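[recover] target loaded
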């Protein structure tokens, strides 16, 4: 069903104004033909990108890479790699230019120069200058054309506190120089005053998140404090200088906290009467109308107007992909017409409230501007309270036509070095060349009625259901959604969960044997590693005699469990997953407090545990169907049966997810299962036990048997009735289990199956074409997330020589900017290590590192818990102890290599093969890594931790482990015995033939 947006009283006037504007922009209409006919390469590149989607993707990827390429040979070889791809159909002129044998050859150099210059020319179209001097020249030209301006500073992403401070200082300097220059500017009544009020000649646009490198909605209070301190400095200086400040809106995750911070700040006595400040609303967001209404109510309360800039929004692809990957509701409209319609609705809302708000309508769509003018004129909105905005280089003709009609037009002018500005350039190019872009449709001579038609909104499906179509074309499995801490109510709920769990600390948890909680001769305290004086719980440790009782109970329960239909077992698992979802906030808190994992990572672990339950439930139903290999006269069935008794020995670093994954895989496959968790995380295992029992696993089928690994663990591994051992932990213990399980014990009538995940010495390669913003952030997350205590954590980063020094410098600054503290604090990125033994062992490795390499950074750490501040070693030899041995702590070795071949050799030069990463924008390097980087999980251009069930099945080879990948299609097979059953169905020469009468 299609709903026509209600044609309002403004429609006739909108059409009339739009036709006049369009006629003015089309008078000199040689532009599109010139794209084809002129010899300018920048125009040709744009025209080709519009007509060829394959070329568009590869060309923009090449442009994205360009900042990292420092020689003509590099540019030439990347040109060939990107545009020579089989998926790209090249125009003959481009094909001829790329037809060189060697990037160093003269034709290669010519191609590099031609395309490099063309991209630079393109960049100059959208970027108003590379330095303040050029910007002043640009704005003086704009003022001659009677256009106002706002300046936005482009640059690298702010990922360090030094960069956040520099961002502030550069804006202070920019305002100072612009205001100084403005003293020589004559007053232009069209833009410098309205309704008898002066309007500041100088305006800058800033991004809130750039004032604090660790800006995070989870840490709303901390982010607000750090950002507000710097914003106050900016606003005070702006007032002294007489400059206006506008706050841009960024990604959806930051929207609510951005609005909240600004609303609080602008009610402070010092700033309450200021009217030279602005905020931004993005019309492509589904909740933007509500946000606008809230802002207007707030402005009424404030009593002094501010500017609200209305834009469509610039991150549509990013927002849709992120929501799909996270299984979150889509924050943006899926249909451009819906964004356009919402834009018109909000335009009307703003202009109807002109006594409280200055409206700044930012668009390149003639209809959008005309709509705003039609409403403003109908309501007699004073000129001071209404202006139109365009982006530099995007709507030049529209802007000129609007100025000629007497409207105030402001041009949004990004400035900065061209190369860091490439991300901005690509957003503009995508916008210009998209099929739905007004600018493109106008260039293509679409009929005026079509260009100016009111947006037609198709009814969209409920945005509250995550859009799985973007995510799972090949899979029906949809994982659990992580908690979105950008939502204030959710942060409140998380805080309440901490209060609730804290009241339960210090309780006693007993083992579960044959359906009963049993007393034990020995107990151990489980401590909070952030504060080891706090006891999380007391855990009863079973004796060897009790281990034998548990084994006998499992033997007795096995025949009944084996016969339980797979569907019934799967449904119990699904119920367990649902119970975890209900108890998510509480389970996250137990993980934070017992093993010192920061809040967001704890929440991600709960998602993983839920995913294991639901994924393995689906998998057993798939496997239970078996396979038919029937032929005439004979049926052949391939089926699976459970192995028997499984012993699960789980680690402390993923105390819920890994314990749950190994346990439920064994259970759903029909095996009776004994869970022996790591001592330091036995309380969380007790919570998992409560959930599995509530879900309906019968007595004896699942048993919780905490105990000492050297006694109880060894006893169960060596027991003749054990069929499967699923272990995650150290290489030393894993190899011992493997050896012991291979020995046939008296009375044992089967070979034991061992599934062991034994860690890694994981490396990330960063080559010279890498996006350093992305690489630094990814390495910091991979190396220091959960203090380096993930099996998948990065402990080596292998960097190519040309960028080694620049990379290490930014890596050190980004790591210095991390917050180290108690895991439960929302600001914490680096919490404690698990216990005193781990802390002391890591310290020993740090001392070895100091003897082998240079200390690039060693951060101090709090005293009250088991803390170790992140340590970075540079100039590390590939054969050093810290390059070869698993440390399992926040220690990173940075290794320098000459070329990509050497990088791969170093990466593969350890006994492990678990995870690895590559940051590169060189297609041949990416291709080579896919085939030659010896790891079970390879991550390209992203961090290397956080594997997701059914998406990135997890596990390695060499000495990283034995067995199939957890969360993948082969995993349950390890808990099953395959059987083939053949029946001859001929009787006396007669056999039923399918299809015969």
């Amino acid at each position: 069903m299609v709903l026509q947006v209600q044609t309002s009283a403004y429609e006739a006037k909108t059409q009339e104004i739009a036709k006049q504007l369009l006629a003015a922009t089309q008078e000199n209409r040689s532009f599109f033909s010139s794209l084809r006919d002129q010899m300018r390469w920048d125009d040709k590149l744009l025209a080709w990108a519009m007509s060829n989607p394959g070329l568009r993707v590869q060309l923009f990827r090449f442009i994205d890479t360009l900042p990292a390429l420092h020689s003509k040979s590099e540019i030439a070889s990347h040109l060939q790699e990107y545009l020579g791809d089989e998926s790209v159909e090249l125009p003959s002129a481009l094909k001829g230019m790329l037809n060189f044998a060697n990037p160093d050859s003269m034709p290669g150099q010519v191609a590099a120069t031609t395309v490099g210059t063309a991209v630079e020319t393109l960049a100059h179209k959208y970027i108003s200058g590379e330095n303040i001097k050029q910007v002043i020249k640009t704005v003086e030209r704009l003022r001659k054309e009677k256009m106002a301006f706002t300046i936005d500073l482009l640059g690298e992403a702010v990922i360090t506190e030094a960069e956040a401070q520099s961002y502030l200082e550069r804006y202070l300097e920019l305002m100072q120089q612009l205001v100084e220059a403005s003293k020589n500017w004559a007053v232009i009544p069209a833009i410098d005053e309205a309704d008898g009020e002066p309007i500041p000649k100088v305006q800058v646009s800033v991004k809130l998140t750039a004032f604090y490198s660790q800006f995070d909605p989870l840490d709303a209070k901390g982010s607000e404090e750090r950002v507000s301190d710097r914003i106050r400095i900016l606003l005070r200086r702006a007032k002294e200088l007489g400059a206006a400040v506008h706050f841009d809106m960024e990604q959806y995750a930051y929207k609510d906290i951005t609005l909240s911070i600004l609303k609080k700040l602008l009610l402070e006595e010092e700033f309450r009467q200021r009217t030279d400040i602005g905020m931004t609303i993005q019309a492509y967001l589904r909740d933007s109308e509500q946000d606008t209404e809230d802002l207007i109510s707030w402005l009424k309360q404030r009593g002094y107007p501010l500017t609200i800039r209305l834009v469509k929004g610039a991150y549509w692809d990013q927002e849709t992909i992120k929501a799909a990957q996270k299984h979150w509701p889509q924050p943006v409209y899926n249909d451009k017409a819906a964004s356009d319609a919402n834009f018109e609705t909000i335009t009307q809302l703003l202009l109807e409230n002109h006594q409280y708000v200055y409206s700044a309508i930012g668009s390149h769509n003639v209809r959008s501007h005309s709509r705003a003018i039609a409403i403003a004129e109908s309501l007699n909105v004073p000129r001071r309270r209404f202006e139109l905005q365009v982006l530099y280089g995007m709507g030049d003709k529209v802007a000129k036509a609007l100025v000629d009609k007497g409207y105030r037009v402001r041009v949004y002018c990004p400035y900065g070095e061209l190369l860091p500005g490439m991300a901005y350039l690509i957003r503009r190019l995508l916008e210009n060349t998209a099929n739905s872009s007004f600018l493109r449709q106008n260039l293509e001579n679409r009929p005026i009625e079509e260009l100016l038609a009111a947006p037609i909104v198709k009814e969209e499906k409920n945005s509250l259901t995550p859009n799985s179509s973007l995510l799972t074309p090949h899979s029906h499995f949809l994982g659990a959604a992580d908690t979105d801490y950008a939502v204030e109510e959710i942060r409140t709920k998380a805080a309440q969960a901490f209060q609730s769990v804290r009241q339960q600390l210090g309780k006693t948890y007993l083992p579960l044997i044959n359906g009963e909680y049993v007393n034990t001769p020995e107990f151990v305290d489980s401590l909070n590693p952030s504060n080891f004086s706090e006891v999380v719980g007391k855990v009863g440790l079973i004796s060897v005699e009790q281990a034998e009782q548990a084994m006998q109970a499992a033997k007795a329960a096995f025949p009944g469990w084996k016969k339980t239909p797979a569907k019934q077992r799967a449904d119990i698992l699904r119920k367990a997953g649902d119970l975890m979802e209900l108890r998510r906030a509480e389970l996250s808190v137990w993980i934070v407090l017992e093993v010192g994992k920061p809040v967001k990572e704890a929440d991600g672990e709960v998602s993983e545990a839920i995913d294991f339950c639901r994924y393995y439930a689906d998998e057993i139903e798939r496997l239970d169907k078996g396979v038919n290999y029937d032929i005439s006269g004979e049926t052949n069935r391939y089926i699976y049966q459970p192995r028997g008794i499984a012993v699960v020995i789980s680690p402390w670093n993923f105390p819920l997810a890994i314990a749950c994954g190994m346990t439920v895989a064994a259970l759903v496959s029909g095996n009776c299962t004994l869970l022996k968790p790591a001592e330091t995380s036995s309380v969380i295992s007790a919570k998992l036990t409560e959930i599995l029992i509530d879900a309906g696993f019968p007595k004896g089928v699942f048993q919780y048997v905490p105990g000492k690994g050297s006694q109880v663990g060894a006893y169960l591994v060596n027991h003749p009735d054990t069929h499967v051992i699923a272990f995650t932990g150290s290489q030393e213990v894993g190899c011992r289990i493997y050896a012991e399980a291979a020995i046939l014990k008296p009375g044992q009538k089967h070979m034991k199956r061992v599934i062991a995940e034994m860690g890694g010495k994981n490396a990330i390669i960063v080559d010279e074409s890498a996006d350093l913003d992305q690489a630094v952030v990814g390495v910091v997350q991979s190396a220091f997330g959960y203090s380096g205590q993930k099996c998948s954590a990065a402990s080596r980063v292998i960097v190519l020589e040309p960028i080694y020094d620049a990379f290490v410098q930014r890596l050190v600054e980004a790591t210095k900017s991390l917050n180290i503290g108690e895991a439960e604090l929302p600001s914490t990125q680096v919490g404690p290590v698990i216990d005193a033994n781990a802390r002391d062992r890591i310290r020993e490795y740090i001392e070895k590192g100091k003897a082998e390499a240079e200390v690039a950074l060693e951060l101090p750490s709090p005293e009250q818990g088991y803390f170790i501040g992140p340590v970075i070693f540079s100039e590390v030899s590939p054969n050093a102890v810290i390059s070869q041995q698993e440390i399992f702590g926040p220690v990173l070795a940075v290794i320098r290599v000459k070329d990509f071949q050497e990088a791969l050799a170093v990466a593969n030069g350890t006994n492990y093969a678990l995870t690895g990463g590559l940051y590169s924008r060189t297609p041949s390097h990416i291709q080579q890594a896919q085939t030659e980087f010896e790891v079970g999980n390879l991550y390209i251009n992203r961090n290397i931790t956080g594997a997701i069930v059914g998406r990135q099945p997890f596990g390695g080879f060499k000495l990283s482990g034995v067995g199939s990948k957890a969360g993948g299609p082969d995993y349950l097979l390890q808990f099953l015995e395959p059987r083939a059953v053949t029946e001859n169905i001929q009787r006396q020469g007669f056999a039923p033939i399918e299809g015969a009468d």
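[recover] notes: The two ends are 49 Å apart (CA to CA).
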